[in-house]
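Curious: why these numbers?
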Amino acid sequence: MDGSIARPRPLLALGLRLCAAFALATMAMLVKLAGSRGAHLVELIFWRQALTATLVGVGLAATGSLRLLKTERLKSHTIRSATGLFGMFFTYGAVLLLPLAEATTLGFTAPIFAVLIAMILFRERIGPYRWSAVAMGFAGVLVVMQPGSGDHHGVTMLGVAVGLMAPLMVTFISFQIQDLNKTESPWSIVFWFAVLSAPVVGLLLPFVIKAHDPATWFLILAMALVGAAAQILLTTALRFGSAAVILLMDYTALLWASFYGYYVFDRAAPASLWLGAPLIIGAGLLIAWRERQLARSRVHSGE
């Protein structure tokens, strides 16, 4: 199976990332619900990884597709697992420490990190359209957050710090996955991440594990299933598009987070959301249009 992104399909990548954003918002809602019922951060991460490894392994075995897990890049998978696990603690931690909409909003700084990393480490040329889209999206985030307004019930400095570390780690992980996609299948990337990280988290499990009622176990299971689906979508999206581009689609998760915040946690999104949302959505539409134009130019130039 050819995992290279030598033939980019930007619209497909953007569509997959949109689906991933919905799955991630749903997973965050389930994490917060399970956490409110006494599930520990370590428990949530362990069961997410353990169930993902089991489901992917059993599913591929049942369909005779275990060959997709073959790899000659175990070292790269190990490094990705280490950064991925580190990132999961920040991502889940932000959801538990902050209101859902605010945790999601802080995650929108990822495209800023992605552009800087692409420019500094990979010497990727970032044109005015992408810079404009990033600026537009970040302006929308600032409008939603209303920094300095003093009207941020439930937001702490610790939560903000954890919430900013999460997108930084997501950006590094996105570039690692994009590199692995050149030789590995999405199933292989997801499987090795889960298999290599679950035992590490399992070492901490005896110190925090506790009994839960059936409803809490259902939430943990649902969180793991939705998280596994999100991870597949994220990995596959990076097969077809640049990390600096498709991360912009994560902005749409704010709409789902606001929906869940209101209907599940009885916390309405701030009014500023409806001022910032058009900027955020506009950024995604601008980048989608630009990527389509670039793809057409490559076809016409015979690249």
User: Anything to note?
Assistant: Residues 10-301 form one domain. The chain has one domain: 10-301.
